[in-house]
Each structure stands twice: as C-alpha cells, then as structure tokens.
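Students often ask why we bother encoding 3D structure as a string. The short answer is that it lets us treat folding as translation between two languages. Here is a chain of 339 residues written in the first language.
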Amino acid sequence: MNELIGLFLIIGFIYFLVNKIKKQSITTKPTLKNNGNKKENSIPTTGKSDYSVQNISGFYGSTEYSSNREYCVTYADGYFNNEKWKNGEIALLRGTTLLFKKKLQRPNSCHVSNDGIVICCDWLDSEALTGEFLVFDNTGEQIFTKKTTANLGACVISSDSKIAIFETFRSDTADSNQLFLTDIEKKTIFNKFSRPHSFNSAEIDTVSHLIKLKDHHGFVFEIDYEGHQTNRVAYENQVLREGSVYDKLWIYESKANDIKNKDENYLYLLIQALDDENASYGFGKDMLYRKIGEYYEAAGDISKTIENWEKALVINPKVGIKRKFDVLKKRIPPTNRSG
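And here it is in the second language, the structure alphabet:
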C-alpha cells in the first residue's frame, strides 16, 4: 500500500512540473537588446511565429523582400491627420531583427538588395513637382541622395547593390520624363536619358549591362545602359500577340507610314479601336478616323479617305487634315461625293 501511495505522489509531482513549464513558455515575451546606441528587437524563432513584419516595425505598410529573402523593407506613405501632416515611415528587417527605422515625408517604391542596401523614392510633401531618391545602408545611414525637379515614380536596385534606377514624370524642367542610372558604389548618377518605357518593376543585370523594364501586362522592354532597346522584335511580337487594341496600336505608331499603311492588320485595329473605350481614350476618335483616312489615302482610295476625314473633322476641326481634305474634295465630282 505504501508503495502505491508513493507512486501516485511521484506521478502528481511530475504532472505539476510539466504544467508549470508550459505556463512559463506561454508567458515568455520577446526581449529588447541594446547594442550601444542601436536597439534591436530580438524575437525568438521557433519555426512558427506570431510576430509579423508589422509587429516588429511598429507600423502597417507595404513590404518588399530582397531576392534572397534575407532582408525585408517595409514602408508607409505620409498623410494628413486633422489637417496636420504626419510623415511616413520606413524600416529594414533581417529575419525578425529590426535593423533600422526612420521617418520620411512620403516613402514609396522602396526596395532592398541581397546585401541590405535600401533605395526609396520620397515623393515629398510639396505642391511643386519634385522628389528625392535616397539610398541607405543596412544600418540606416544615408549613403546617396538625389533631388529632382519632377515627380518621382518607381525605382529598382540590382540584387548585388551595384546599380539602381529611378524614373521621373513630366515637368517643364530638364528632369522631365527621365530614367536615372545610379552607381551605388561610386555614389553618383552615371547616366540619364528620356524614359523609354513606363514600368511597374525591373531587373538589372550588372554583368551584361542590360535592364529589363516590365509593365503592368508583364511585357518586357529591354534596354542597355545608354537607353537603347535591345529586344525590339521580341517585344513587338509579345505585344502584338498578347496586348490590348491600345497596346498594339502604339506598336504600329513606332513604324514608318509606308509600312503600317500597307498592313491590313493595322486597318483592322483602327476600326476595332473605334468601339474600344480604352483605345479611343488613348488616341481619340478624331485621330482614329484621321488614321483610317490616311490608310485609304496610301491605298489610293480617295472616296474612303474623304469619308473618314469628314468624320474626324466633325469631331475636331483642328485634327490636322483640313488642307489636305479640301484639296482631295476638289478632285471628286459632286455626284460622287459621300453624303
């Protein structure tokens, strides 16, 4: 009997110890390490973590990861709060460790390389057309900056931290619609040229010196460091195969008149665009009728040329064909004129 009672006591004591250990593990909190002047959040990693990027950075925003997934940059735009401007925030994480966090006016399009170098387009709180491109190392130290006299758009950094690019939008200055190429190691802008193509994302190959600009359709417009397109045929074929009417018409706009005005597919697209709201918005129905008329003019069909130019002039008398229209109309006998 004494042996049985002792066994029960041992089992009860073990049960008590197990529950005590469980309670302690549940209530354990992350510790805050202080390394000199820099504070880092050290959060236990056990495979399953309830701690998100927002919990670590202390704010909710957009996130971008380095291609090796080692670093994460998170950022939130500035905004007005009760008619008072509140700056945005940017933070860099490595795993679950907060490397730096700082305030910027309007951080947007932030990216991080495999080495933890961060780039950011600060759109700035200003009524003027302006912006500031910024580069930080993985401690948050600013290592390069360039302020522009045009609004900034997107930016991209190469995975090896050597090159970054950023774009500007239209303004009345020399910075209007430009693509800037930055040498991060030398901390300088080494080239700047007219923005060849709008892009949502990009890839920079620092070995071949090629940049792949990707638009919202996923079409790849490849250029070299001088801004020259290096995949014209492949790009055109991709757009003509997969693009919208609007996209395809813009491809034809880059072709010479004597080429596109002999292509029946071009005429088909122009006619199709008349019923396509997106294409009509991009070109305007007045321009579509003008271009259809020009196609027939090249084919020698004066009657259909006049017919379409009349429609263009009704929509917009300043569409740019009035003189040619008047000359052509005199060549058609009154009984043969349309209308």
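Translate back mentally: Confidence is low (pLDDT under 50) at residues 20-50. Keep this in mind for the problem set.
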